[in-house]
Amino acid sequence: MVDATIRKAQPSDVKLLSSIGWKTYVQTFGPHNTQANMEAYRGAFSEPKLSAEIANPESIFWLAFVGDDAVGYAKVNFGSAQTENRHENEGEVERLYADTSVHGKGVGKMLFATALQEIRNRKKTAVWLGVWEHNERAKAFYLKNGFERVGEHVFPMGDDPQIDWILRKEL
User: Fold this and answer.
1) Could you give the CA distance from residue 23 to residue 34 in angstroms, rounded to a whole number?
2) Can you tell me the distance from the alpha carbon of 66 to that of 107, in angstroms, rounded to the nearest whole number?
3) Which of 63, 65, 95, 154 gives 20 to 30 Å between its CA and that of 108?
4) Per residue in 25-57, is it b (16+ CB within 10 Å) or e — as a string?
């Protein structure tokens, strides 16, 4: 375990979110995708896009730190901010990433617990998320934590239509 702290992201954190978001995305998916397809998705981590997302009251970001270093982040969506039209009593964990330097050291678990608590605080009865069918580490984490596969959707990664499993858990 590592001594990490979690705090809610603020609008002033957009540059930091962009940096840790892109870094962890590349660590997770870069080895499995072409450079062109990775670059095609880079806009999801642009400062203007993240500024709009962090300003949305139906989306919440958290940052994880070890000392002064950002080592991970999570994003939860509610209502119309969810990436799919889901039941109003559900919350979505859209993103949950930790730097590879802290894998297996509890940072992901802390971010996950924080996200679930926010969903419970908003009186939601279930949580859902999408996870790439080839992300074995993430799938194992979520299945171990009580999620069940309830469907799938296509995630366009550049010119590669990839399959995400839709996982859901009652709270």
Assistant:
1) 16
2) 9
3) 154
4) beebbeeebeeebbebbeeebeeeebeebbeee
- Show the tokens assigned to 1: 């375990």
Task: Identify the band that residue 159 occupies on the pLDDT scale cut at 50, 70 and 90.
Answer: very high
- DSSP 3-state assignment of 50? helix
d(CA 73, CA 98): 7
Nearest to 133 by CA among 25, 20, 24, 32: 32
Report the C-alpha gap between 45 and 41 in whole angstroms: 8
The tokens of 169 are what?
């858990």
- The owner of tokens 């896009």 is 49
User: What average pLDDT does the segment 132-144 reach?
Assistant: 95
Residues belonging to the chain: 171
